[in-house]
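REQUEST ID: PR-0412
SUBMITTED BY: lab tech R.K.
PRIORITY: routine
TASK: structure prediction, single protein chain
INPUT:
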Amino acid sequence: MNRNLLRAVILKTIPVMTGYVALGMGFGILLVSSGYGIGWALAMSVFIYAGSMQYLGVSLIANGASVISTALATLMVNARHLFYGISMIEKYKEAGKLKPYLIFALTDETYSLVCNDNGVEGSDPHFYYFLISLFDQIYWITGTLIGAWLGENLNFNTTGIDFAMTALFVTVFVEQWLTSKNHVPAVLGVAITVACLVLFGSELFLIPSMALILLSLSLGRKMLDKEAAEHE
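STATUS: complete
OUTPUT:
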C-alpha cells in the first residue's frame, strides 16, 4: 500500500468518519441503555454493520421480536441496498477475493463515495474501494465502542439519540444535491417516495417506492444520461 493511496482513502473518508463516529456512539449508547453490554455492541457493528437497521435492532431485541418479524423489518429497512447492489455489478465484478467484503460493506455512505470514483491512478481500483469500505466500518465500530463505554459509565437522558440516523440521511441527500448538477433523479426519488408514503402508509411504502424509483430511472436512463452530459 503506497502513501498516495492511503492518503487518498483517508481524505475521501473523513466526512464519513465524522458522521459514523457520532452515529456509532448513538447506537452504542442506545444498546447499552437497553441492557446489553459492550460485547453485543461490538458484535453487531462487526457482523451486521447496517446503521439504520442496528438502531431499529435495539428496539427489536429489547422487545423480544421474533425471527420472522426481524427478517421482515430488515427487508423493509434495507431494501434500498438491493438497488445499490445492482448499480455496482459492473464496478465490482472483477474484484476477486475482495468482492464478498465489498458487497457486505456497501452502506449508503460508502456507496456515495465509490459509485462515481474510479480510484487512484496507478493503484488497483478494487483495493481502493476495499480500503474505503474498511475504513468506514472501522469508523463505525470505533463510534460504537465509544458510545457503549459512555453508556456503561455515564448516566444521561438518551431521548432523541435515535434521530441521528435520520439526520445523516438528510445530510447525504443535501451533499449529493450540492455536488450534482443534474437534480432530476433526486426530485424523482422524493416525489415517488412521498406519493408511496401517502398511498401505502409509513409501514409499507419503502419497497413500492424503491421499485418505482428503479423502474423510472431505468425507463428514463437515456434521457438522464443526456441531461447529465449537457451539464458536464
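NOTES: Residues 48 and 128 are 22 Å apart (CA to CA).
REVIEWED BY: pending
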